[in-house]
Amino acid sequence: MDQQITQWLHEDESEDEEACEVAVPDLENDVEEDGTIEDFRAEILDDNTEDSSSDDEIPLWTGEKPTRSKIPRRNILFHPPGPKAAAREITTEQEAWSIIFTDEILEEIVRNTNAEIGRQREKYKRDRPMQNMEDENADASSFTKIRPSFAQDVSVLEIKALFGLYYLAGVLNVNYVTTKELFDKNSGVGYFRATMSQARFEFLTNCLRFDDRSTREKRQQNDRLAPIRNIFDHIVKVSNEVYSPSDCCTLYEMLLGFRGRCIFKMYIPSKPDKYGIKILMTCDSKAAYMIDAFVYLGKGSCPTSVPAAHFFTMKLTEKIHVTNRNLTCDNWFTSIPVAKELLQKQVTLVGTLRRNKRDIPPYFVEIKDRDRNTAKFAFSEELTLLSYCPPNSKKKKKVTMSLTMHPTADPDATIQLSEMIEYYNKTKGGVDLMDQLCHKYSVFRRSKRWPMEVFYGLLNIVGVNSYVLLKMATKRATKRRHFLKKLALDLITPQMEERFTWPSLPMNLQVLFGGILQKKRPLQEPSSAPTAKKRCAMCPRGKDRKTKVTCGMCRKPLCGEHTEAMCQECVTKNN
Question: What region does 555 belong to: left with phi over 0, alpha with psi -120 to 50, or beta?
Answer without folding.
Answer: left
